[in-house]
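Hey forum,

I'm writing up a methods section and want to include a predicted complex as supplementary material. The small molecule is magnesium ion. I've pasted the protein sequence and the SMILES. Can someone with a working setup run it? I'll credit the forum in the acknowledgements.
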Amino acid sequence: MQRGHLLSSQESRHWTDWVIWMKLLMTLTINLISVMHHSVIPGGPLMFKNLNFGIDLDSRIAMVGPNGIGKSTILKLIAGELQPTSGTVFRSAKVRIAVFSQHHVDGLDLSSNPLLYMMRCFPGVPEQKLRAHLGSFGVTGNLALQPMYTLSGGQKSRVAFAKITFKKPHIILLDEPSNHLDLDAVEALIQGLVLFQGGILMVSHDEHLISGSVDELWVVSQGRVTPFHGSFMDYKKILQSS
Ligand SMILES: Nc1ncnc2c1ncn2[C@@H]1O[C@H](COP(=O)(O)OP(=O)(O)OP(=O)(O)O)[C@@H](O)[C@H]1O
Ligand SMILES: [Mg+2]
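Reply by user p_vandermeer:
Happy to help. Structure tokens for the complex are below, copy them as they are.
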């Protein structure tokens, strides 16, 4: 059943139930009473207190805030790379989370080609399926067989993005994904994110990326995460005037 089809009232009720069920199942609720940094130094600084927010399949959020405020820490908490010192980060057991950063683009095996790389990452998956997936991100034809050291930054980002989305994550976390990317590569990333049907939480200060791929802005400041009612430009104006 597809969204947007005219439904009978019974179908409509089933559809609504399904949406609610999916939301309950997939909603990733973060309810941190207090989070101390994972620093092993006893009595390290308390970074966040009373954080309480959720992310679901419809979330398309960019998180902004000054350097060192804890944005990457929040992503790591959500991904399970860090544990809060108190409170809970609840993740539905069914939720698949993927993490994308420049690190993943830099980590590509440049001597390999996109298809071989995907075959190594996902052994046993039919070649045609991997080709089709690469193709959906614009890595088609000969491009899929060229050594990756010959690919542009944008093409490499497409391969990295194809890799992290192959297992169909429900939520993608991106930490400053456009750092060191040229315009072409940022454009490729935006296209990938627009195609992606799931939740997005990214840390970025790239206006083009933010306006092209998300619709909500959260500000991290003084141990809190708050929704910002305005555009990224509005946020920048406030920063400049303060
Ligand atoms: N491995 C670590 N050990 C100890 N302290 C750390 C570690 N990683 C980060 N920190 C500290 O935790 C705080 C938050 O770091 P975090 O990387 O989350 O900030 P950020 O908001 O992502 O900053 P940026 O915008 O510079 O990426 C900073 O004060 C940082 O110095
Ligand atoms: Mg960071």
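Some notes you might quote in the supplement: DSSP finds nine helices and nine strands in the chain. The pocket of adenosine-5'-triphosphate (ligand 1) is lined by residues 37, 39, 65, 67-73 (CB under 6 Å).
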